[in-house]
Amino acid sequence: MKRLFLLPLAALGLCSGWLFSASASERSAAVEPVRLRVELDRPVLPAESRETVIVKVALDGVRRPTARRAPVNVALVIDKSGSMSGERIERAREAALAAVRRLGRDDVVSLVVFDREARVLVPARRVGDGAGLEAAIEGIDASGHTALHAGVVLGAEQLCRHLEDLRTHRVILMSDGQANVGPRSADDLGRLGTELVDQGISVTTVGLGMDYNEDLMAALARRSDGNTYFAAQARDLPRIFDEELGDVLSIVARRVVLEIDFPHGARPVRIVGREGRVEDGRAVVELNQIYGGQEKFALIEVEVEPGRADAVREVARARVRYEDALDARASTQGARVETRFVRERERVVAAVNREVQSDYAQNRLAEAKAEAVALVDAGRSAEAAVRLRRTGAELIALGGSYGNATVLAVAAPAAAIADSVEADGIDNAKRKALRAETEQTFSQQRAE
């Protein structure tokens, strides 16, 4: 068997270069597609006390009329291995057909299938009336093994034919099995995801049934800033494809970089629930796209040095850089946030930002679930239960201290999940559901 190597896409000859940005005069005249906000979970802190606060840096995508959406460049990559026979391949065809019918005439679409090897059924082309595409989709049947890596690479190669266009680039991968031809580990596919996002390509993964490798699919989606779905039944596929196309068609900004600086007296500790880096008093988070009408954010735990009563201190200063999805116009926005120190605890409680606390609680619990899965995999179910109970107890204490009913509701299931894990471990179905839930929380994926 010929070995497939993981190489940067430029080395593979797939993609070359990015778009140029618009001029300063063009930037000043345009309506920004993103709004930047910086918030604290506690904008008022106890005086003379070292405190840990949560900084939320949020990006709100501005919803645009459908007529002004950015055109898209989509590669549908569909597993047609033997396990997809019967209802699964029928529903996959139905979902792909529905996706094509939702695209506009000038959108670009390609169709790639894979079993033992990957093949292009429809090279990247404008949708037009969709007739040839629909015929190709209806002709997909199931047989063979699962060359998943090769399918994603071939899909990306089709996208690269239109990478210079003002388009949103997305691979939508659907598979029901284990990758068993070519690179097949989560690390392999995670590295591929990183290489793709560097070219502005995200991969959304749809795992079908109980046999696909959720770790591999999650790593590919997370590292490329795509979405993750778990379809327990084949009948879920049309709904999932429709939801995913809704996101792809609403993208308003691309190549998004958040940089958050923390002045003296505020030390960033870690980013909660999202990949990024913290170094030298700065946190950096990179995203590939922002959707209109949705919020994306980063949460950072920050240690704040004690302050005198009535003193005001800047805690964080954020900057976001991005490209407008309509015209590749480069833009930058900035915002900052301060805290005030007081002696009265009731003032601290009264000023608390309950929404930020809730976001933090959801991501903390998702982290605990992800760690519990890893511990159970390692045969350490008792430790997994302890981790879940400890996180749940910490969140209940947080919610109780500030009268935050939403945080209490988020924390409430932790003990029951811990009991179940300790008694029965995590079966295959529950593992897939937990992995999908945690990935969707980390990426702030729209609720299904």
Plain-language structure description:
The chain is α/β, with parallel strands linked by helices. The protein folds into 3 domains: 13-64 and 252-342, Immunoglobulin-like; 70-249, 3-Layer(aba) Sandwich (Rossmann fold); 354-442, no CATH class. It is built from 14 helices and 16 strands. Strands 2-16-15-10-13-12 form a 6-stranded mixed sheet. Strands 6-5-4-7-8-9 form a 6-stranded mixed sheet, with helices on both faces. Strand 7, helix 6 and strand 8 (201-208) form a beta-alpha-beta unit. The chain is globular. The protein starts with 8 loop residues before the first helix and ends in a 6-residue tail after the last helix.
At the third CATH level, what is the topology name of the largest domain? Rossmann fold
Q: Helix fraction?
A: 25-40%
- Count of DSSP E strands? 16
SSE run: HHEEEEHEEHHEHEHEHEEEEEEEHHHHHH
Distinct helical segment count: 14
> What is the CATH homology-level superfamily of the largest domain?
von Willebrand factor, type A domain
Distance between the first and last residues' Cα: 40 Å
Overall SS class:
alpha/beta
**Which architecture of the largest domain would the CATH scheme give at its second level?**
3-Layer(aba) Sandwich
Fraction in beta strands: 25-35%
What order do the strands of the largest sheet run in, or round the barrel if closed? Answer: 2-16-15-10-13-12
Shape: globular
Low-confidence stretches: 1-13, 16-29
Mean pLDDT: 88
